[in-house]
Amino acid sequence: MSYLVPIQRPSSVRHALKLNFLSPWGDCLVAAKSNRLEFYDVTSEGLILRHTKTLYGKVTMLHKLRPASAQTDHLFVGTDRYMYFTLSFDWTTNQLHTEKSYQDMAEKAARESQTGDRCHIDPTGRYMTLEIHEGVVNIMPIGRPGRKKSDVEVGALCDPIPTRIAELSVRSSTFLHRRRPEKDKPRLALLYEDSQNKVRLKIRELDYNSTFKNESESAELNELEDGGYNRELELGASHLIPLAAPCYGLLILGESSISYYNDLENHVEQTPLEEATIFVAWEQIDDQRFVLADEYGRLYLLMVKLSNRAEFEGWQLDQLGETSRASTLVYLDAGLVFVGSHQGDSQVIKITPQSMEIIQTFPNIAPILDFAVMDMGSRSSDAPVNEYSSGQARIVTGSGAYKDGSLRSVRSGVGLDILGTIAEMAHITGMFDLKIGPDGHLADTLIVSFINHTRVLHFDEVGEIEELPKLNVMSLDESTLFASSPPGNRALQVTPSNVRLMDLKTDTFLSDWQPADDQSITAVTATDDFVLVASGGTNLTVLSLKGATLPVQAQRSFDASSQIACVAMSSILPNICIVGFWQNAAFLIMDLQSLETISTNRVEEDNVAAVPRSLLIANVVHDQSPTLFVGMADGTVVTYSIDPENYSLSSRKSMILGTQEAQFKALPRGDGLVNVFATCEHPSLIYGSEGRIVYSAVTAEKATCVCPMDTIAFPDSIVIASADDLKLARVDEERTTHVQSLPIHETVRRVAYSPDLKAFGLGTIKRTLRDSIEEVESHFKLTDEVLFQELDTYPLNQDELVEAVIRAKLDDGSGELAERFIVGTAYLEDEDNAEKVKGRILVFEVTAERKIKVVSEIATKGACRCLATCQGNIVAALTKTVVLYSFEYETSSKPFLAKKASYRTATAPIDLAITDDIIAVTDLMKSVTLLQYGKGERGLPDSLVEVARHFDTLWGTTIANVDENTYLEGDAEGNLIVLNREVTGFSEDDRRRLRVTSEILLGEMPNRIRRIDVQPTPNAVVIPRAFIATTEGSIYLFALITPGKQDLLMRLQASLAEHVKSPGNVPFMKFRAFRSLTRRAEEPMRFVDGELIEKFLDCKNEVQESIVDGLGVGIEEVRGMVENLKRLH
Fold first, then answer.
1. How far is residue 199's CA from residue 169's CA, in Å, rounded to a whole number?
2. Does residue 902 contact residue 911 with C-beta atoms inside 8 Å?
3. Which among 275, 271, 320, 268 is positioned nearest to 293, based on CA atoms?
4. pLDDT recorded at residue 386
5. Which of 243, 477, 615, 831 lies 20 to 30 Å (CA to CA) from residue 71?
């Protein structure tokens, strides 16, 4: 039984609308992201998210209505499940309400529209049209004064009336503005493609009749008496723009021209464009100005020019700039335009004279074409990792398309709520909080250290922040290495030249200590009782803080070959200190009273020595021994558990956070434990959860150092310094998904990650436009795993596109295995030469200089769609066959690929998943086939033999092996199915047939499934098995439910489905039921939707009690189980 939960929700914006919805006093923007609606307040500086809601269906259309009795607009929503409804918003309770719903308006005998669903309201506000199926237009009258139906409110929608039209392939449609709107019948313009593939314009007139006595209504879209305009238009015509008074008529957007249709004279006037392009979206600013967007991300301002008689004279098109490729445009106000994008970041731009500027960006990782999972933890460990945590993994996606293409790093982590910017300060080297107020419990002073001076900031009770010219007798003309507030109203300051102790109550200097021979202090740490100082690189001194002076407790000198790199001590282990050294990658555990060595420890991995640069002792996990954190110079963080009795180290684990050392700062939690903030290229918050240490990314990518700042006005806050400024922030309590972006400006079609090479192999496609001609080229790129810096690029041949990229260990010619990247390609179709080679397989090695080099290649007769490895061989999915190649050597330096076996598929193989000798093949139309590889014996050739098959028709897109003899497949219609092979079946037919054990409608097309292997804890509810990435930018976690929890979760889901209602009152079971062209189920089968399960925590107590009634478990047990499930992401 299967469990599915999103860890990254959809980010692609295909539909958006501005309306007066959230309150009567201002407009808002609603953006549809797959099955989620997001509502934003519109401000002069951009958009502010106010409300989100999940729907049971993917949004396909949005429109607005205003019933007469409503104070705000109603939102009309259409979904891909043929569910249509209107929503209102109660601003007093912040809740959506369903006003009216139309369940299942599907025409069973009609074909779905192949050019997208469309919705229009005529300019008089009397009718709405829905175009869902080819040849059918649904007319929905809108209530108006004078109607005798008492149950229809003025401005509300009536029931739909289907009417048929002859035009099937409609590219665009719109209502015309009539010159006498109250008398003239509405006219609908249709831009369509006829049976000869010619583009034409048809004008139809809406004839609506209602009979009040028998409550019957009828509607027809009749052709005009004069036949309307029936001449052929430009083949690239794509959009119709209605013009209001005084012009009237239509603008027809084409690839090489923009035409004006004069509806009075039934005439089209065509004007060519200076440069051909493909328009994809438009939005009206006013009666004469429009914003246009094209396929290449360019934004234009279109101005309609009028003659002296206020008639159409022409148009003017000016390019404003470049944005993401737009899916929808919405004019907000005051020159602001929202650019909603499917294949790039959505943006808010401001139109300026002859130009534009981007003022806000909303990250979008759709469409995810491929991804790789980087395990950020457990590079080496003597303790097993018991449970998967997405905070310890990074998913790197190939996202976007063409110029919007990028690599995205997706990691579950902790967000920061920025409270404000304190000041613009550069080159901050350290920060320390002091408690100098009368209560002495909360911080009120911040010491900010720079390279050669120190500044002091004071926080008052109301939140005002003031810089102080001096503080007591503190030295401000040099850098501060350490500062704290020991007990007794005292302050401690350590600079490179001395240690100073001051009395805060009397504002007097108490004592100081200086190293001998004018040596500089290089490292320092302190507790309430002692100060540990390293000076001159080799001298260690312990000073006592128990009195008004600084007596020396102990001293020790090391020889010149033992240079001190870092020091640490903590009040939780008051009798020891830890000292790290540059040489030998060693650190010592020492007795604090005498500085005698207790133990010597070396930090090394794979016989490569690393230098410790920072140390911290902290209690992070409840009821466990203190943890020692060691930050290495190469960006690795090593942790040990310290036995408080004998100070021995155990449970060594390592984690790579970046390429530079991580600096640690303890952030008190208030329960005796601390969280640890590690600053490096990828800042992380380290904390304890469920008996383990979790590393979570933090949204503070530019942080150089941090400091806790728990003040009266800003409780539980932290101060974050970057290269440019100083900010006050609060750490979020819950983890969320965070995304970092690296623009590639090419489609990142394939991603392969090599932990050994610490690099990514990328297959990219670049599109350029030169002299109105598209040019496409493809590359294989090598990039660094941390910085994503491009290391090398290999260009493919002309008209050759990358199709597959994997990494594998292959023979290097000496009998050893070496890491290699394997690339599969396809050539664009050549109709003149069908026998021409249609693809290649290339094998690359990465040299010591981190350059890529081709070591072998072979031409294929079909496009190489997918690659994998099986027992040291390369398996290639070609256009119609699956071929197995061996990697052999003619000489020790000349490898080649030899074809060993092949299998002809039903149509075209799309994806491969290999376990031992079993090869699972996803077919374009015929679902999954299992092949078994047999090595030839006694002179017989190797073989690929079909051993099992799923016999249903399914348009497969991706597959992964998620358990023994169990496969997870995704299809092009947004379904997920789990297939099981019965190897011990009773009959041969049972063993050859793959049986469906679970199925669900995801609602988004899965592009890639990657298996993950996690060792579960004994009490785990689910076992994570795979990540799923979709075209809408979602990432899901797929898991298998443990047998003891299957029945409980299924019954909990059924109960929640009855109690938790979706907007539009769409049934949950129908929404998640499997759906394809050949079969439609009534409910999901043996699949649990984790998003619905987690809604249990949002329900009120009385609703929770009703939900668990009859489940046989208590409400607290269910709540605890759901909370544990939520922590998975």
1. 10
2. no
3. 320
4. 30
5. 243
